[in-house]
Amino acid sequence: MLTSTLLLILIGCSVAMYFVGRSRSIALVGGRSGISKLNSLPGHYGLWVAAWCLLPALAIVLAWNALGHRLIVSAVVSQASSVTAPMSPGQRSLLLSDIQNVEDGTVPLALASPSVKAAAFELRRLEQLSHSAVAVLALCVMLLAGGLTWHRLSPTVRARHAVEKVFRVGLAACSTLAIFITIGIVASVLFEALRFFHLVPVTDFLFGTQWSPQMAIRADQVGSSGAFGAVPLFLGTLVISVVAMGVSIPIGLFAAIYLAEYANRRVRAIAKPLLELLAGIPTVVYGFFAALTVGPLLVNFGRVIGVAVAPESGLAAGLVMGVMIIPFVSSLADDMITAVPKALRDGSLALGATRSETIRKVVLRAALPGIAGGVLLAVSRAIGETMIVVMAAGLTGTMTANPFRSVTTVTVQIVQLLVGDSEFDSPKTLAAFALGLVLFAATLALNFIALVIVRKYREQYQ
Amino acid sequence: MTTNSIQVTAAPDHSLPGEPVETRTVGQISVQQPVLSARAVNIFYGAKQAIKDINLDIGLHSVTALIGPSGCGKSTFLRSMNRMNDTIPGARMTGRITLDGEDIYSGDQDVVQLRARVGMVFQQPNPFPKSIYENVAYGPRIHGLAVTRADLDVIVQSSLQKAGLWSEVKDRLSHPGTGLSGGQQQRLCIARAMAVDPEVILMDEPCSALDPVATARIEDLIDELRDKYTIVIVTHNMQQAARVSQRTAYFHMGELIEVGATNQIFTNPGHRLTEDYITGRFG
User: Where does residue A132 rank: exposed (0-12), middle (13-18), buried (19+ CB within 10 A)?
Assistant: First the structure.
């Protein structure tokens, strides 16, 4: 029986058991009029029976799916390898893939050696056997647990609390899962980065000023020794982020102040969604805009004022990225300004302050933590942004803080390193993970700082 | 209401320069030395009329209490005296309010100057999210009252002293004002209002968010401040009105029903509504 079919049966049965449990609880107290004699509502009894019906059986199926296959394979492989001489782990995994290829038909049966053929048959036999065994076991457990619960059902059972507990465990499981996924992602990046740091020293990576990740594949290739100094990338990221912040903070903040303090309701109702529309434009579209419109515009402008601007420049990417994150800044700042209590405004106005004095000295002061939080979120967004930079800023890691030149960023290089054919043991590929780790650490630090600021000021308010 | 209503025509030497006042208010609406005078004041929020035809003088260096049930318009009237109602969208006012004889609603009245002369303390203590020092220094800085830092220090210290807060905060002037207790915060707000050296201080239920001990301190403070300032206080607490004020005005449904010396209002009210309210029959 297929696992999906089995799951459908389990779910179907427990849904049925919900109604059975529900109606039995009503029947036990002699119909609907007696519901008040029940310890819990009929629905709780239904859920209680259904949960006992579903969860133990589900646990068995999930456990087998996680472990069963691996156990069978390792049993078969050790049986097959015991025939021949002792094997290294590499040979073992070769043998395993041979067996599996034969079993699922990728390699024709005729080409396989007799021992592999036998092992493949054994593997298939065991797999089928275990499938049926698990299906039978799960269905038995379901019937047993469901039937037992149905039997135990009485008006005094505290089904309400049992259901409560199931929900609590379920909710806890979801949050734990989210945490473990995060840990898993971090660990996978971390381990690959550590492999990279075995090949290239950490200090070379963090403080080197030469970025040229191309490696010679053959010995006779020239000029590609591979240099992994990431400072030019950090610098490029910094330049673009600073330009983007220079655009988005003033515009976003002033727009927010206008919308929150001066605009009347009609203007606000129209302008706010329009502004937030900027956040909905795909970054690729911003990329076109930056590469095809802003870039050439800047080149021409540079020619007029006598500054050499590269067609792909950090400035072009930064300006457009700044436009993209305006709504992040303005929307959050607007919320924070609107949340400042009217009492503070009144207090300031009553002292004879004008509207703009009140905004500058009291409202913005009070809204500052929220605004700082919004800005930091926007910064981490800018650091992580890839598409605009790929299209508008260039791909070469130039060691420069000049926004008129072509620069590249951490994210762009990660993409560069991982596209195309690549081997997983070369520093070129592994460098992407090291960059990813740095990126992760930077955004984590930014978010942490944002949280600390927000918390510090919030305490002051209470 | 008509049974007890009488028409008062104020004596010429007590009225504003100009015409005698016709009013349904019981008691003497005018005083010897008026600082603020309201004549025929109506205030509307949109289509709703919040206060109706109020005539009242506020006497120099005394405490005037405005009392009455919730929604009677006493806070609205208070806020009209430093034009804080201007900040409410849809608020509209007719009539005339004068401060030392000048119409505060006239076109050439600078509302910034007006509010520097008529300060206000609110129901909820509302210190700014700044240090204690900066809270008090806020007004003087805006109005350019201090040239040097030393001047400002003097103003801050004397304001805090007048508010009875100096000894409690002098060692932590740089701490946030929001970290003080509720009663201290309210005294900080009073100090903040006094720092711009106003003539009048309006207080809108200044003790309603405070515990009895803090309330008693504020009441003592109000009594002391009477020497130098003219104070108008809105309160829900009739004992408080009796304790701190010299004159009491009773508002009901947007009208000024009765005004008079505080001990007379509380011992011998002239209008049945006033009597019902102070004896706790409603409110």
Answer: exposed
- A405 phi, psi to nearest 5 deg: -100, 170
Instruction: Examine residue A353 and state whether it is found in any structural domain, yes or no.
Output: yes
**Residue with structure tokens 């005005």?**
B249
Last residue of a domain, one of A156, A191, A208: A156
Per-residue pLDDT of chain A (462 residues; tens, 9 = 90+): 577 888 899 999 999 999 998 888 888 888 888 888 888 888 899 999 999 889 999 998 888 888 887 888 888 777 777 766 666 777 777 777 777 777 777 777 777 777 777 777 888 888 888 888 888 999 999 989 988 988 888 888 888 888 899 999 999 999 999 999 999 999 999 998 898 888 888 888 888 888 877 765 555 655 556 778 888 888 888 888 999 999 999 999 999 999 998 888 899 899 888 888 888 889 889 988 888 888 889 888 888 988 888 888 888 889 999 999 899 889 888 888 988 888 899 999 999 899 999 999 999 888 888 888 888 888 888 888 888 888 888 777 777 778 888 888 888 888 888 887 767 677 788 888 899 999 889 888 888 888 887 776 665 554
By the 8 A CB rule, do B123 and A385 touch?
Answer: no
Are A29 and A89 found together in one domain?
A: yes
Chain A residues inside the 8 Å CB shell of B119: 350-351
DSSP state of A77: H
Shared domain check, A115 and A7:
yes
Is residue A351 situated within a structural domain? yes
ipTM for the whole complex:
0.85
Q: Which of B84, B130, B196 sits opposite A349 (nearest CB)?
A: B84
Provide the residue ranges of all domains of chain B, joining segments of one domain with +: 22-123+201-278
CB-CB under 8 Å, A344 with B84: no
* A389 and A240 belong to one structural domain: yes
Nearest to B91 by CA among B42, B55, B36, B53: B42
Q: Under CATH, which number does the domain B22-123+201-278 receive?
A: 3.40.50.300
For residue B143, the chain A residues in CB contact (below 8 A) are 352
Domain count, chain A: 3
> In the numeric block, which tokens belong to residue A419?
């596209």
Residue A212 domain flag:
no
Please answer whether residues B115 and A352 qualify as being in contact, where contact means their C-beta atoms are separated by less than 8 angstroms. yes
Q: In the structure, how many helices (H) and strands (E) does chain A have?
A: 18, 2
Do A314 and A373 lie in one domain? The reply is yes
Q: Are residues A262 and A325 in the same domain?
A: yes
Residue A178 and residue A279 in one domain: no
Out of A357, A457, A460, the one facing B179 most closely (by C-beta) is: A460
Tell whether A345 and A255 lie within a shared domain: yes
What are the CA-CA distances from residue A251 to residues A160, A289, A317 (Å)? 54, 19, 17
Task: Tell me how close the Cα of A452 comes to any Cα of chain B, in angstroms.
Answer: 17
- Nearest-CA distance from B76 to chain A in Å? 14
Check whether residue A179 and residue A140 sit in a common domain.
no
Q: Is residue A65 part of a domain?
A: yes
In chain B, which residues have their Cβ closer than 8 Å to the Cβ of A353? 112, 138-139, 142
Range of the domain at A413: 227-461
